[in-house]
Backbone:
């Protein structure tokens, strides 16, 4: 009997050590993961080339070169030689045939960073019709394959928080606002008088 108790005590101690080591390793893994994200750059700028839409003809300017290193050369055919070429540099350029999954792949690791306590902002910028909604939300009849960045990011947020639920509880909230003509509106408010920002308390 005394021998049995001693044996169980040793076993419990080993389990406690293993658990402690496991959590230390997890913390180290988390730290290293976020350091890599830091090294990849705190501010990353990606360019996505939108394909020509049906019926749309090639315009005066055309994409001359898309480099693996994030270089993009655009040519203005009305100007001869070097004068008509402009070079832009990004972290990465996604060609017109890039899928929604490819575009999201570089952003995906940042979603894990959010759940590790880092602030992350992802936004699309471009002239009207350039493909912001397509990239961030997806086309109208959205299948999972067509999901844009927002759907994929939320899916990953819930997925990771679910996987970590035995050790961490997350509270997730969503706010949706529109900035149009320098006015900010709360798109989730059902009360018309509360729609305009700043909201009155
Ligand atoms: N990568 C793409 N592949 C195929 N079609 C695309 C792509 N990007 C955009 N489109 C199409 O181009 C059109 C304009 O795109 P979208 O509505 O996303 O532009 P936008 O930048 O959000 O415009 P706005 O600022 O006017 O809202 C849409 O018909 C969209 O389906």
Residues:
């Amino acid at each position: 009997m005394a021998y049995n108790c001693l044996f169980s005590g040793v076993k419990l101690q080993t389990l406690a050590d293993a658990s402690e080591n496991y959590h230390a390793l997890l913390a180290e893994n988390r730290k290293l993961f976020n350091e890599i994200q830091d090294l990849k750059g705190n501010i990353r700028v990606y360019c996505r080339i939108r394909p020509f839409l049906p019926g749309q003809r090639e315009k005066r300017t055309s994409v001359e070169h898309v480099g693996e290193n994030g270089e993009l050369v655009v040519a203005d055919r009305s100007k001869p030689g070097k004068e008509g070429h402009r070079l832009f540099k990004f972290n990465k350029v996604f060609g017109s045939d890039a899928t929604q999954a490819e575009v999201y792949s570089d952003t995906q690791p940042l979603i894990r960073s959010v759940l590790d306590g880092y602030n992350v902002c992802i936004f699309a910028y471009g002239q009207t019709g350039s493909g912001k909604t397509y990239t961030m939300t997806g086309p109208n009849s959205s299948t999972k394959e067509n999901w844009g960045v927002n759907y994929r990011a939320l899916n990953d947020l819930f997925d990771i928080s679910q996987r970590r639920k035995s050790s961490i509880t997350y509270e997730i909230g969503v706010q949706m606002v529109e900035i149009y003509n320098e006015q900010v509106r709360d798109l989730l408010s059902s009360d018309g008088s509360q729609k305009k920002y700043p909201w009155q308390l």
